[in-house]
Amino acid sequence: MKLWGGRFEKPTDKLVEAYTASIPFDWRLYPYDIAGSIAHCRMLGRRGIIPPDEAEQIVQALQEIRHELDMLVAEGAPAPDPALEDVHTMIEARLREKVGDLAGKLHTARSRNDQVALDERLYLREAIAGVAEQALKLQGVLLDLAAQHVDTIMPGYTHLQRAQPVTLGHHLLAYFEMLDRDLARLRDCFGRVNVLPLGAGALAGVPFPIDRQMVAQELGFESVVANSIDAVADRDFLLEFHAAAAIIMVHLSRLAEEIVLWSSAEFGFLELDDAFATGSSIMPQKKNPDPAELARGKTGRVIGHLIALLTTMKGLPLAYNRDMQEDKEGLFDTVETVRRTLEIMAGMLATATFKPERMAAAAAGGFSTATDVADYLVRKGVPFREAHAIAGAIVRRCIARGITLEDLPLEEFREFSPLFEEDVLEAATARASVASRISEGGTAPERVREALAQARARYAASLDFWSALARRVRV
Question: Which residue among 58, 184, 284, 423 is least crowded, i.e. fewest CB within 10 A of its CB?
Answer without folding.
Answer: 284
